[in-house]
Amino acid sequence: AQIILNNGEAYDYGFGWFCYRDNDDNEITMHGGGIPGYGAKFIRNITRDRTLIILTNYYAEPSSYLEEITHSAWDIVSGREYSLPKFSLGIEIFKLLNETDDNIMKKATFFASDTLKYDYSARSINRMGNLLNYYGGFDLAARIFHFSKILFPGSSEAYTGAGIACFNLGNRKKAKENFIEALNINSKNILAREWLEKLNN
Question: Which residues does residue 87 pair with via DSSP β-bridges, in sequence order?
């Protein structure tokens, strides 16, 4: 059930569980968690006495593949129409990084031809690059963003991520070029602007 905060407002979290009512007025409790490499979700529909538990050995961030799997599985458990989650372009490219650029581009073309199966988007590949930057894998992040810039040349985020990777690899000149290009694509890219100002000071 909801808890009541000191200011009198109700909040959908109590005793370690998120508690809410879904669109069909079912009482739902859920919680999830993870660390890099592992993730879990526990969802219980108290009204209909249904429970879903998901454990995975892939977990990258809150909006990762785990969330997509959870939504699809919960639709199945709830008796609703569902769609299977798509494979992440970022993960697929990451698995190929030991191959030549030509081979990776050939496989990327294949992924692009099957958008029902693969999430062929700048968001998907940039998510992987940002994750690698976050955990200090700057050389791998630079490779991921290299392909993102080729596949999605209009992605300001790809250039920003590449700039961050280059900066942390000690290549300030290349970092600056990437931040400038990120701003050329999207002048409202605050992160690129902040990094460029940091480089210019």
Answer: 118
